[in-house]
Design brief:
The protein has one helix and 15 strands. By secondary structure, it is mainly beta.
């Protein structure tokens, strides 16, 4: 059906052990004209005990860029602008998060949650100054100033990991990445 299926491990361990991720080359630099990533994803195994990241990050290594525990952030990326859905958070909603030169932006709750077996379209735009805007199903849900360092090379990423000993599956219908010319 034209889908890419990401399946996490099931040990409830670290992302490096249990995570599944799509990323590309570090060839997207916001300062070169701004950039955008849109992805249509479908949570197949439900939306309990899981963490998703969808957006841009600064490494192609297997790495969950940002996670949440209650309201505390853990950022593995030095620069990233991603949607974070983490059931270890205080609330089970998408959060719009940035990290710029190892400094986390304020936590922004989009107040929208994914629904099992239901497609959702997520878009992250980053302008030439490193400010990010986040859209869910075409509607603006957040703007995050100074989300990333504008001169840092980024890669689009979609990552999933289990928060328990049950594998989690996320289908990716499409990914569109574009950048304006400087």
């Amino acid at each position: 059906g034209g889908l890419v299926t990401l399946v996490s491990g099931n040990a409830g361990d670290t992302f490096a052990h249990d995570g599944s991720q799509i990323s590309g080359g570090l060839s997207w630099i916001p300062a070169n004209g701004g950039l955008s990533m849109t992805a249509r994803v479908i949570p197949v195994t439900g939306v309990a005990t899981v963490c998703y990241n969808i957006g841009f990050t600064d490494t192609v290594a297997l790495e969950l860029p940002i996670s949440l525990s209650t309201t505390s952030l853990t950022t593995n990326a030095s620069d990233a602008a991603v949607f974070v859905f983490d059931t270890a958070a205080t609330n089970d909603f998408f959060h719009c998060q940035g990290v710029k030169a190892n400094v986390d932006t304020a936590l922004v709750n989009a107040a929208i949650a994914p629904v099992a077996d239901t497609a959702i379209v997520l878009r992250v735009d980053i302008d030439v100054s490193g400010h990010a805007t986040f859209y869910i199903d075409g509607a603006l849900v957040a703007s995050v100033a100074n989300a990333v360092t504008a001169s840092v090379a980024l890669t689009p990423t979609i990552a999933v990991t289990a928060r328990t000993t049950s594998s989690r599956v996320l289908d990716v219908d499409y990914i569109e990445v574009c950048q304006l010319r400087a």
